[in-house]
Specification:
The complex is a heterodimer. Chain A is mostly helical. Chain A has nine helices and no strands. By secondary structure, chain B is α/β, with parallel strands linked by helices. Chain B starts with a helix and ends with a helix. Classes of the chains: A mainly alpha, B alpha/beta.
Chain lengths: 166, 305
């Protein structure tokens, strides 16, 4: 993607806020699969959009721009809010975006799990789908939790991971 | 799975020791994987009879190789196929030979490709005339909508005339995990589940990645007469082996945020091979909402009314 493309994207983003939520989400979801490669300031306001699906699509798009750990923490925070508080479709959308982040999301997700009181089974589910060493270690601990929902998710994930030979 | 990927997988698998894995890899080859011909021919040497049949069948599918007919007849007549325990081998060879003879306008009989899968997957058939089944998608194994008494299940049965919809005690359930491997495992399990019921005719109503599970199962030999896909993330690596699918439908909402985030396309664009319908609503779950089906005349579109 060259400079002129990025300028065109910034121009689009400047006009995007006035469009209906489905259009905002669709544009940002598509942008999330492009190779932006460098910070795109016009994306940031959409992380606070009034529509949850727009916020999720924006988080995935920002992820493409290359960012430090602090930004990554914020993106994971945005996605976890929707994962744990959204309706069925929104939660699945947020979970998919988190799985797409792969290993980079693991440490921020574990922090979110702890900060939120170690009770959100969907965070455990996402960690089980990312798998990897750090996530596996978390899952083993979570399988001994006092929260039955957390134990169920962690145990199911560990069993699946073993079956899948990961 | 694309031809290139299938050939790569085949080459690796043929180097291994597992006959079952070799059989599955050969069955997964799409018909345009002609570049696999040399590897298939090399694998014939020393192959056990079951693998030999699958290899011959693939050589015919890929190249219409006329020499396979004679060898298949020899296998059919061999003690291995005619003797005790030779039933599976006999069925496999018979199906493969049927394919050859059908092209000559001289088919022997009409066994379904479920019989091939039955032989490959090694499960006992049940025997139904017609069966419809709902396949749920990612994160939906605990959902209610697809189960007996669930709203979509009830709607299909009561309002759309799908009275052959499965409502027994062991519905098909898969992990719903958001991973390729989970979907691949589910395709295998789905094949086994269907073969246990051994329907002559199979209809599948599949949501989201459940549609990809159903499509993958066709690479294991399953034949689906009607495949209704609701909001599938469309990916070429999950495409069905289309000669094992009768009618196929793709129903998508106008904007589906889940499919967008999952990096799936919404349309197959296969020149009418899959009939496609866009619903003027937003969302991922709306495509199995009975009210939406009524509003947009989906039953008529998929031939239920």
């Amino acid at each position: 993607m060259d400079g002129s493309d990025e300028e065109a994207i910034e121009r689009e983003l400047a006009q995007l806020a006035s469009r209906p939520a489905p259009e905002r989400a669709e544009f940002l979801a598509a942008l999330g699969w492009s190779r932006l490669g460098r910070p795109t300031p016009g994306l940031e306001p959409f992380l606070d959009d009034s529509d949850p699906q727009v916020r999720i699509a924006a988080a995935q798009a920002v992820r493409q721009t290359g960012q430090d750990d602090k930004v990554l923490d914020r993106l994971v925070g945005v996605l976890v809010e929707e994962l744990c508080g959204g309706d069925e479709d929104t939660a699945l959308m947020a979970g998919t975006a988190l799985v797409n982040m792969e290993d980079a999301a693991v440490a921020p997700l574990i922090r979110q799990f702890v900060d939120r009181g170690e009770k959100d089974p969907l965070i455990v589910r996402v960690l089980g789908e990312i798998a990897g060493e750090e996530a596996m270690s978390f899952l083993r601990d979570a399988s001994r939790s006092t929260n039955a929902d957390v134990v169920r998710e962690a145990s199911a994930a560990l069993e699946a991971i073993e079956k899948e030979g990961l | 799975m694309g031809a290139e990927m299938a050939i790569r997988e085949l080459t690796q698998t043929l180097d291994g020791d597992s006959t079952d894995a070799k059989v599955v890899a050969v069955l997964a080859l799409p018909d345009d994987a002609t570049a696999a011909t040399a590897a298939l021919k090399a694998a014939l040497e020393g192959a056990d009879p079951m693998l030999e049949v699958v290899l011959l069948d693939a050589l015919y599918r890929l190249n219409r190789d006329p020499h396979v007919e004679e060898r298949l007849i020899a296998i059919l007549d061999s003690p291995a196929a005619q003797g005790d325990g030779g039933e599976e081998l006999y069925m496999m060879a018979r199906i493969a030979l049927n394919r050859v003879l059908a092209d000559d306008g001289d088919a022997v009989s009409g066994e379904s490709s479920a019989v091939v899968a039955e032989a490959v997957l090694g499960v006992e058939p049940g025997g139904l005339v017609k069966l419809a089944v709902i396949v749920h998608g990612t994160w939906a194994r605990d959902g209610a909508w697809w189960r007996s008494q669930g709203d979509f299940h009830t709607y299909l049965k009561a309002k759309c005339g799908v009275d052959h919809l499965y409502d027994g005690d062991e519905p098909f359930i898969w992990s719903g995990r958001n991973r390729d491997q989970a979907r691949s495992d589910a395709a295998d399990a789905f094949g086994r589940w269907v073969i246990r019921h051994d329907p002559e005719e199979l209809e599948v109503y599949a949501h989201s990645h459940g549609a990809n599970v159903a499509m993958l199962s066709t690479h294991l030999g399953l034949e689906i007469d009607k495949l209704v896909m609701m909001s599938p993330p469309v990916r070429k690596d999950y495409f069905a082996q289309w000669d094992r699918v009768g009618e196929a439908f793709n129903i998508q909402s106008k904007f589906d945020p889940v499919v967008g985030i999952a990096r799936g396309g919404r349309w197959f664009e296969l020149g009418g091979r899959v009939r496609e319908l866009e619903l003027d609503v937003r969302g991922h779950s709306v495509s199995h909402d009975p009210d939406v089906w009524e509003q947009f005349k989906v039953p008529e579109f998929v031939g239920l009314r």
